[in-house]
Specification:
Strand 1 and strand 2 (21-26) form a beta hairpin. The protein is built from 16 helices and 17 strands. The protein has helices spanning 2-12, 59-74, 78-83, 88-100, 201-211, 229-233, 258-268, 298-301, 311-320, 356-361, 365-369, 379-388, 411-417, 428-440, 467-483, 487-490, and strands spanning 16-18, 21-26, 31-36, 104-111, 118-129, 132-146, 153-155, 171-176, 182-185, 221-226, 239-245, 250-253, 275-279, 286-291, 335-338, 341-344, 519-523.
Length: 546
């Protein structure tokens, strides 16, 4: 009897199979423990983890997240401040550096009124290095974001939160400047300053980086931005933010003409997005450079689709190959299909029975695209390199530049490159040089500092255009200035002027490209192929597209 009872008890406590679940009932307490081992009955409907909050941030969330970060930073609680961002590691490294490398102390942060998720704030601090100290003040901002994993509001981390001049990977450093200061002089020997010529700020930074150690100066003590890997790849120079004690500057003489520089600054200041470069064709000397935006030297380092300006280079190629001639008939249909792409003229205009001169003056895209089938894929690349010195990354002007890019392409992309689209990239400096090459008869690499200063080697082109090709190009450019798309903008500039408009397709900028005896290239945002203006000489005038 007792034996049967024990067996019964054992059977009573055995698990019972319920639709793919094992149910174990312990005593009479009603405690159920479930373990899913396969399909069958529905499992527990309760959520397996916490709900991730989504949607726009509330004003309270923005205020709380920004206050948490700013308060911790102000009180030197780096770990806590970094944890309030979405990249604690990078934030901790840079925030630690503000104390250990930049020597900032007594930091006071004052938040302004938030605009959505963006919170502006002011920074006041003291830069203290050895026995020297100076106050520092500037404005910055942060943006609150939701962390993807849980929706928690955090400060979206970028180095610019600490200082607006910082790019990700840059640092703030106070100490003896690694590079002594330089005094840059114009061609007449007068000092060039960013206060007088705002566009020259980035140029002066580049001159210091290039010549500071060789110009005879002595370093002072300063707070500066030390560029990281990404910034150096973008050819950004270190930047001085605060000078604690003056060094002794060296001297670097440039080729800039003060009168032309002043005019260039004045003209680009009238536009939101404009750049100008003036080059002396006979030597390559850069006489002026200006940008309406002063944070980046678009004129020298921009990488823009040049649009119709590239037709000067393409025309030289077509004339060289006997595929076009000024006064010979040349097709200009409304559209032309090549490589599977259908190319259009502006407003689908056409010129029936017209000459190549007429097509060039009116900037007929199809006149150039129609010749693509007769060209090799690398023809335009070789023309740009061998005649105009472009796309070889070897210009040495004295400060960082982008030297143009004309990659070898095929099919539709090759055709597009003939009209300055596809993969072609240029800037006003490059296009001023193109026009100067046509004017002088050969490529002279532009330069800002004479090569005799540091015995550097200037880039050269391997060949020059024939006299016949040069004369035709000059005629095309003069005719366009007098009667074509640039007629109104170029009126009154004299019979020897030959400038040509360009509007980079991707940026809304355009460049008149040649002049005699000085060459200007400008960029501004007008309508594609319809208007032209020379920012250095006659701003604000336009011409309808025929």
């Amino acid at each position: 009897m007792g034996k049967r009872r024990r067996v019964a008890e054992r059977r009573k406590n055995r698990p019972v199979m319920l639709g793919g679940m094992i149910a174990v009932v312990v005593g009479g307490a009603g405690l159920g423990v479930y373990a899913l081992y396969g399909g069958g009955a529905a499992a527990d409907d309760r959520p397996s983890g916490p709900t991730v909050k989504t949607g726009p941030l509330s004003a309270t969330e923005v205020r709380t997240a920004s206050t948490r970060f700013l308060t911790a930073w102000q009180h030197g609680r780096v770990t806590e401040a970094a944890a309030a961002t979405d990249d604690p590691s990078a934030a901790a490294e840079l925030l630690t550096g503000t104390t250990e490398d930049a020597h900032l102390k007594d930091v006071t942060l004052t938040a302004g009124r938030a605009a959505g998720a963006k919170v502006p704030f002011s920074v006041k601090a003291t830069v203290s290095y050895k026995s020297t100290g100076k106050p520092l003040g500037y404005d910055s901002s942060l943006t609150v974001v939701r962390r993807k994993s849980d929706g928690r509001p955090l400060v979206g981390w970028h180095s610019s939160v600490v200082h607006p001049d910082l790019k990700d990977g840059d640092r703030l450093v106070t100490g003896a400047s690694g590079t002594p200061p330089v005094t840059a002089l114009d061609r007449d020997g007068a000092e060039l300053t960013a206060a007088k010529f705002p566009s020259l700020g980035t140029v002066l930074d580049g001159l210091r980086e290039k010549y500071g150690k060789t110009a005879g100066g002595r370093a002072g003590v300063e707070l500066r931005v030390v560029r990281g890997k990404a910034s150096k790849a973008a050819e950004l120079s270190d930047k001085t933010l605060l000078e604690l004690s003056k060094g002794t500057p060296g001297t670097v003489r440039t080729t800039l003409d003060p009168a032309l520089q002043a005019t260039a600054e004045q003209q680009v200041g009238k536009r939101d997005k404009a750049s100008v470069v003036v080059v002396r064709p006979s030597t390559g000397e850069i006489l002026a450079v200006a940008n309406s935006g002063h944070g980046f030297n678009t004129a020298f380092q921009g990488s823009l689709a040049p649009g119709s300006t590239m037709k000067v280079v393409t025309s030289s190629l077509l004339i060289d190959k006997g595929l076009a001639s000024v006064d010979k008939k040349h097709p200009c249909p409304k559209t032309f299909t090549y490589g599977g792409w259908k190319f259009h003229n502006d407003d689908d205009f056409e010129i029936k029975g017209g000459t190549f001169k007429a097509s060039f003056a009116r900037s007929c895209n199809t006149a150039f695209i129609s010749q693509a089938k007769k060209l090799e894929n690398d023809d335009l690349t070789r023309q740009a390199q061998q005649v105009f010195g472009l796309s070889m990354n070897n210009w040495a002007i004295g400060v960082p530049t982008f030297d143009g890019s004309v990659p070898v392409q095929s099919a539709a992309q090759m055709a597009a490159s003939l009209i300055g689209q596809g993969g072609v990239r240029m800037n006003p400096l490059n296009m001023a040089s193109v026009a100067a090459t046509v004017q002088s008869g050969g490529f002279h690499q532009p330069y800002l500092v004479s090569p005799s200063v540091d015995h550097r080697k200037l880039a050269t082109a391997s060949r020059t255009l024939s006299g016949g090709t040069l004369s035709q190009l000059r005629e095309l450019m003069r005719y366009t200035a007098a009667y074509g798309t640039a007629a109104e903008a170029m009126s009154g500039l004299g019979p020897t002027t030959a400038r040509r408009p360009v509007r980079p397709r991707s940026t809304g900028r355009r460049s008149p490209t040649a002049g005699s005896p000085r060459t200007g290239a400008t960029s501004r945002p007008p309508v594609w192929c319809r208007r032209a203006a020379t920012a250095a000489t006659r701003p604000g005038r336009s011409s309808r597209h025929c």
